[in-house]
Amino acid sequence: MSRSDVLVDADWVQAHLDDPKVVIVEVDEDTAAYDKNHIRNAVRIDWKKDLQDPVRRDFIDQAGFEALLSAKGIANDDTVVLYGGNNNWFASYAYWYFKLYGHGDVRLLDGGRKKWELDSRELVVEQPQRAATQYTAQPADSSIRAFRDDVVNAIGTLNLVDVRSPDEFSGKLLAPAHLPQEQSQRPGHVPSAKNIPWAKNANDDGTFKSDDELKALYEAEGVDLATDTIAYCRIGERSALTWFVLHELLGQENVKNYDGSWTEYGSLVGVPIELGN
Amino acid sequence: MCGAKAGGPDLAGVDVANETIIQGSVTRNDEPVNGYVRLLDENGEFTAEVPTSATGQFRFFARPGKWTLRALVPGATVDRQVVATQGEFTEVAIAV
After folding, report:
1. Are A135 and A102 in contact, with CB atoms under 8 Å apart?
2. Which sequence spans correspond to the domains of chain B?
3. Which of A16, A162, B25, B69 could form a Cys-Cys staple with A22, CB 3.0–4.6 A?
4. Inter-chain contact B74–A33, Cβ cutoff 8 Å?
5. Closest alpha carbon within chain A to B39
6. Between the CA of residue A9 and those of A75, A83, A115, what are the distances in Å?
7. Residue predicted with more confidence, A82 or A85
8. How does pLDDT run across B58-92, given as a tens digit for each residue?
9. Does ipTM come in above 0.90?
């Protein structure tokens, strides 16, 4: 798999805005951002309303994913290009869902909404109308998803990559600094985890660094790319970006995203936690 | 669109006394600019990033200490150093 199979630049998207077999999808942390404006012909997936189980803490199941994509007018053979704010955090999270449920051709827009805006490219208010489809999803691929016991069992054995900011890793902050710090769980990190903040994967404009730079980053931080890896953050969206880097860009075979992440682990009774750097 | 507002977005429901708030606005020729503000720690490490609001405002919930704010707007990048204190608003007006 090459980088262009999973990542496209803004010029590519610009050239495919009217391609009926390319569906551009915006997924933002700020779910109202799409209402303000968006890339022409882009549809929205709301990570809170569309991607989460409405009752349990879990994400939508196979039938839910099929219903969602059918309603959005996305067909199995469409090329899906995801983009969003916050350097593609939630677009990466959605990308991971698309892979988990076996979509054939899904890619990220390099740099996401920020790069598009900083380039002063066109954004519109009009929402496209796409005819509903009969989307068929594959059973969830559990090889790319980690659960809490996987994380506990990985301590001191597998690569654990904590992609939060240094202050969250050390326990000084409980949430990213653009959110209020009102959380009930304990601060800190999983013992033996390496702190490699997601931001180190990206340039200031939100585009990903080169494969060589990314490989050098993980090797310099002591991550053996031949060993299985679990990435986590606070709720699993920033670590989906790191999962994308390791699994999709660098081609590391066994990488799991722990979407329970710190909001689950930091609330578990009796599990080991480390503080400090 | 009206002009840029001072301060950050609405704080309803936030326990301000327990937060270390850095907020402000980004303007060009006194008009709000749509762009992004990054928060970097004392080692220059990325900590957070927010888009500016329609009125050019931004806000971070940080911790006490030294920080760098980096405003990214079309065609310009501007850094500002600040020192933040718990329970206080650190106000930063960034002109680009």
Report:
1. no
2. 20-95
3. A16
4. no
5. A177
6. 22, 11, 10
7. A82
8. 999 999 999 999 999 999 999 999 999 998 889 99
9. no
